[in-house]
Write a structure and sequence with these properties.
alpha+beta, four-stranded mixed sheet, 39% helix, globular
């Protein structure tokens, strides 16, 4: 599986996570998680112009979030994660503590929806090759 397959792209996927989720947050980011039927973690991001007017700043935050997600991908439960920027970050600290927050939100989501956790144990864990 490619890392590109681990992204949320459709409005319906985002709406599903926004409607009912488990949350965890850092100083700058809010992480929302909900178990999915795909069988592997997926990431969606909301980085608004209101907080970061320059596209270069928004793209830097997105790159940092994607990299943190990629590093903890094998450890995450099969959930859809939406990461939302809630405050203007200090440059260089955009994704501080994000990997721990992603794991915490995923654990909370799996605890809230135990039927999804039971379905996970029946599936084989997908293999995620490292990016080179």
């Amino acid at each position: 599986m490619r890392l590109r397959d681990a992204r949320l792209v459709g409005k319906a996927d985002f709406d599903r996570v926004f409607s009912d989720n488990q949350r965890a947050r850092t100083d700058f980011l809010l992480v929302m998680a909900r178990p999915n039927e795909v069988g592997h973690p997926r990431l969606g991001m909301v980085v608004t112009k209101r907080l970061l007017a320059r596209a270069v700043d928004r793209n830097r935050v997105k790159r940092c979030v994607r990299e943190s997600f990629r590093q903890v991908l094998p450890e995450l439960p099969p959930c859809d994660f939406v990461v939302r920027l809630v405050a203007r970050p200090v440059p260089g600290e955009e994704a501080r503590d994000l990997s721990r927050t992603l794991r915490r939100a995923g654990q909370r989501a799996m605890a809230k929806w135990p039927a999804a956790a039971a379905g996970e144990s029946q599936r084989a864990a997908p293999e995620f090759p490292p990016n080179s």
